[in-house]
Structure formats: C-alpha cells, structure tokens
Design a protein that fits this description.
This protein is α/β, with parallel strands linked by helices. Helices cover 44% and strands 21% of the residues. The chain is built from 12 helices and 10 strands. Strands 2-1-3-10-4 form a 5-stranded mixed sheet, sandwiched between helices. α2 links the parallel β1 and β2. α3 runs parallel beside α4.
Length: 250
C-alpha cells in the first residue's frame, strides 16, 4: 500500500513537472528578435520552461478561439487580443507592451537604392521585381503597409508586384532570400542581425499609417509561468530590450 501511494505521488510530481514544461505562448512574428532576447533575460532568473510559437496575430486568434492551448498571446496589434477578450477567452483586456514601427527593406544585392522621399520610394518600387508584405487580414504590419501605400498614392504602382507572407517574418524572409527585392516589415526585424546583413532599410513615417499598438493578453487558465512572464514583459528590463529593437514602450 505504501508503495502504491509512493507511486501515485511520483506520478503526480511528474505530471506537475510535465505541465510546467508545456507552458505555450503565441508571439507575433515581428517580435522574434526582441522576444528571443527578452526570454533569455527572463530565464536567467527563472527556471520556467516556455514553448514559444511565432506567427501571425490573425492565425493565433483563430487558433485560440478554437481551443489551442496557449497561456499567453503577445500580439502585434490591439484588435485581435481585444476580440478574444470580448469573446470571453482571456482573463482581462491585457496590456499594451509596445508600439511598433513600419520599415521598408531592400535586398542589398539587388542594386536598388531606397531613399526616404516618396519619389525615391516610387523609383525603387518601379525597379523591383516583387514587393513583399504580410497578409493584411492576418498581420497588422501588412495592414499598415497597405495603409501607407494608399495614403502615399503608391498602391496602384505596387499592387501587381505584391507577394504575401502569412506573417511579417515570412514576408521579410522573401527579401532576405531574394524572392522579392523590396518588402515592408517591422523596424525590429529590419534592425535584427539576421536581416540587416543582407538588406538595407528606411523607416516609414508614423503619420502614414495607424499606430501599431501591440497588446498582450493572458488566456483563461494561464499557467503561473505565463502570468509571471506577462508581468516581466511590463518591467524595465524587457522595456529596455524592446526599445533597443526600435519599439516605443508605454
């Protein structure tokens, strides 16, 4: 009998450990570089094991609505987290943790030069083979890119050259690999070492698209690890890292 209870205790401990190791969070693709560094910093004082999945905010929202076992959703905008809140999937409305910026990148080997004026950007688009953006219905940075092109009167020039990635990371990779000469991406990705070694970028003016306010929310039933990370994301160390990658922080 004693052995039986010891077996049950061991089984419960293993189950508890397994649960702790499967804390799963959804992170918008634009955050990959910054969040990798944030998570490394977080883990330096916490033993928590976190499984991170990167992708588009729209796809994550649909997955969470369908019961995907995420504890924390770190999105690229406000719309998708707030929709989940309205539908009763989150603990509360969450918090804005960063304000993102849009950038235009060009493949260095393409020989195309980009400048900050509308005329220079139009010339670069005209010379390009393809222009990569994230799908605007799924990814806030894709939506911002379309807003910019329309507000600047460049959409008609660009529309037949557009190639779409499921998220901003995929769209960025199209330029890095040369599948597209130009692409709209998050400033944070444009500044990352993996992207910067093969591309150049310019910052798109803030007033030409709606502010990209990035919100995070805890999903109902979130693990203690996710709740701790949620708090850490609002602390000074995480904010310092976000600022380094070009984000504004509240």
């Amino acid at each position: 009998m004693i052995r039986f209870f010891l077996f049950l205790a061991t089984l419960a401990l293993c189950s508890s450990t397994a649960y702790a190791q499967t804390t799963k969070i959804a992170v918008a693709a634009n955050m990959k570089g910054a969040f990798t560094e944030i998570l490394k910093s977080y883990k330096s004082h916490s033993g928590s094991e976190i499984q991170v999945v990167y992708g588009s905010s729209g796809n994550f929202s649909a997955q969470i609505l369908n019961g995907a076992p995420f504890s924390l959703f770190i999105a690229a905008d406000e719309h998708f987290p707030l929709e989940l809140y309205k539908k009763g999937k989150t603990i509360n409305e969450g918090a804005i943790y960063a304000i993102g910026k849009l950038a235009l990148i060009v493949k260095t080997s393409s020989g195309i030069q980009i400048g900050s004026t509308k005329t220079e950007i139009a010339k670069a688009i005209a010379k390009s083979n393809k222009v990569a953006i994230a799908k605007p219905e799924l990814a806030p940075y894709g939506k911002a890119a379309i807003e910019y092109l329309k507000n600047e009167g460049l959409f008609d020039l660009t529309k037949d050259k557009l190639v779409y990635g499921d998220n901003v990371g995929v769209a960025t990779n199209y330029v890095v690999t040369g599948a597209a000469d130009l692409g709209f991406t998050a400033l944070s990705l444009a500044k990352s070492s993996e992207v910067a070694k093969d591309t150049n970028y310019i910052l798109i003016g803030d007033g030409l698209y709606e502010p990209i306010k990035q919100r995070m929310v805890l999903i109902k039933g979130a693990s203690p690890q996710a709740q701790e990370l949620y708090q850490y994301m609002q602390g000074t160390q995480a904010k310092s890292i976000l600022q380094k990658y070009g984000y504004m922080t509240p």
